């Protein structure tokens, strides 16, 4: 480099330094440290609120229908119906194995006349397509008469092996009824909402 070029770059450097210094001094003269810190704090506090803007909620609202379909994750839940309690695809029957009491003179949750409910039951969690919620269902055998064999269903949502009897639908639960241990039919009573 020539000495004259070196001098010009030094003058330009000092010119840039002088302009930067004058701008910063002017800025510092018009603002205070507390004001700058307050503005930075306001920005830091506002940043986490951006996900709450309406844009984010619009996407969430459009996916609510997809969430309802996602709740029915079992094959039975995706084809369940809520209108005909005498059909095997009725939503409460997702884990039932046996004759439907609703077709044998009883109801969905009541035994036919002349039979007695078993003292114990097995449980299942079934998806109701009508309201989009899942419910805990207690399946109870009705005992004391011959099997009615009107409509027999075998649904296995959540069925567990027999060493987990509370969720096994293959066991005849008529022991301990005080009447005959003959199996007649099975009921499906809603216990409450599943979480």
UniProtKB/TrEMBL annotation:
User: Which pathway, metabolic or otherwise, does it act in?
Assistant: One-carbon metabolism; methylamine degradation; formaldehyde from methylamine: step 1/1
Look up keyword 4Fe-4S and say if it applies.
Answer: no
What residues form the catalytic site here? Answer: 122 (tryptophylquinone 6'-substrate hemiaminal intermediate), 141 (proton acceptor)
Q: Does the keyword Protein biosynthesis apply?
A: no
Gene Ontology terms: cellular component = outer membrane-bounded periplasmic space
Listed GO biological process terms: amine metabolic process
Q: What's the protein here called?
A: Methylamine dehydrogenase (amicyanin)
Organism of this sequence = Acetobacter pasteurianus NBRC 3278
Q: Which gene encodes it?
A: mauA
């Amino acid at each position: 480099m020539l000495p004259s070029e070196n001098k010009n770059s030094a003058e330009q450097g000092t010119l840039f330094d002088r302009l930067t210094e004058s701008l910063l001094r002017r800025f510092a003269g018009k603002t205070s440290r507390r004001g700058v810190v307050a503005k930075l704090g306001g920005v830091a506090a506002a940043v986490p609120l951006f996900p709450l803007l309406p844009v984010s909620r619009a996407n969430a609202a459009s996916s609510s229908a997809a969430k309802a379909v996602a709740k029915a994750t079992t094959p039975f839940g995706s084809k369940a119906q809520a209108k005909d309690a005498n059909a095997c695809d009725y939503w409460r029957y997702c884990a039932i194995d046996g004759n439907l009491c609703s077709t044998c003179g009883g109801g969905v949750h009541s035994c036919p006349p002349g039979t007695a409910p078993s003292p114990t039951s097995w449980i299942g969690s079934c998806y109701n397509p009508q309201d989009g919620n899942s419910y805990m269902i207690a399946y109870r055998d009705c005992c004391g008469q011959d099997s009615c064999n009107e409509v027999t269903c075998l649904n296995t949502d959540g069925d567990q092996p027999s060493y987990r009897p509370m969720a096994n639908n293959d066991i005849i639960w008529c022991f301990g009824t005080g009447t005959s241990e003959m199996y007649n039919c099975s009921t499906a009573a809603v216990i409450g909402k599943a979480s």
